[in-house]
Amino acid sequence: MKPNYVGTIHKIKVLTTYPEMLVRFSLQTPKETINCIISKKELADELLMLLDGTELAVYGRYNQKRQLVVVKMCVRK
């Protein structure tokens, strides 16, 4: 089962840009802080345009390092 979470984003950081873009951020939910990672270029570009504190809904799976690998995301207002 792939988890989905809603929270505010913090600590956006570009890890690599070549050969594939890799961006990490923290998602602060009411219960916990989740370390997330995005490898899809389209999602990474959209995320980099957002400010810290923006509310975001994410959907993905966990990797071996317990990071949520984001597959889908939606900006909430």
UniProtKB/TrEMBL annotation:
It comes from the Bacteria. This is Uncharacterized protein.
